[in-house]
């Protein structure tokens, strides 16, 4: 799989959101899409990141950007996460890792010496023309939202 670069066409995708509705990149043609990948619902770093996007949601909207979160968790888990933290944007379920693989964020990780496959915390900003405008890899949840918003 080749590495994605700024200016390249964003890989197309479609996946169910928390309500089971299929969401596709094509649904947002002409809009800026902030596509952020996170490992797991309701875990410390992922909660910090999601709540940060929630807190800045109005600012993203003002700049014409749509936020979409993606993790391997099932829709049922997304519903709980959204309700618990009042998240105002869709969370997509990438159980088969197709979107993560297309964006090269399904990677080998290591914890306590054990290697496993998992989601790399990354964000892709897709311009209204469907091309990658910005790519953020291995992001820090606390300051990441400000970084993305500044780049819009």
Which structural traits does this protein have?
globular; 5 helices; alpha/beta; 152 residues; 5-stranded mixed beta sheet; 30% strand; 9 strands; two-stranded antiparallel ribbon
**Which term fits the overall shape?**
globular
- Sheet bearing the most strands, described? 5 strands, mixed
User: What structural class do helix, strand and pairing data support?
Assistant: alpha/beta
User: Portion of residues in helices?
Assistant: 25-40%
Number of DSSP helical runs: 5
**Radius of gyration, Cα only, in angstroms?**
14 Å
Order of helices and strands: EEEHHEHEHEEEEH
- For the terminal residues, how far apart are their CA atoms? 27 Å
What does this structure look like?
The chain is globular and about 40 Å long. The longest helix is centred in the N-terminal third of the chain and has 12 residues, at 44-55. The relative contact order is 0.24. α1 (44-55) packs parallel to α5. It has five helices and nine strands, in the order βββααβαβαββββα. The strands form three sheets. The protein has a five-stranded mixed sheet. It has a two-stranded antiparallel ribbon with strand order 1-2. A two-stranded antiparallel sheet has the order 6-7. It is of the alpha/beta class and 152 residues long.
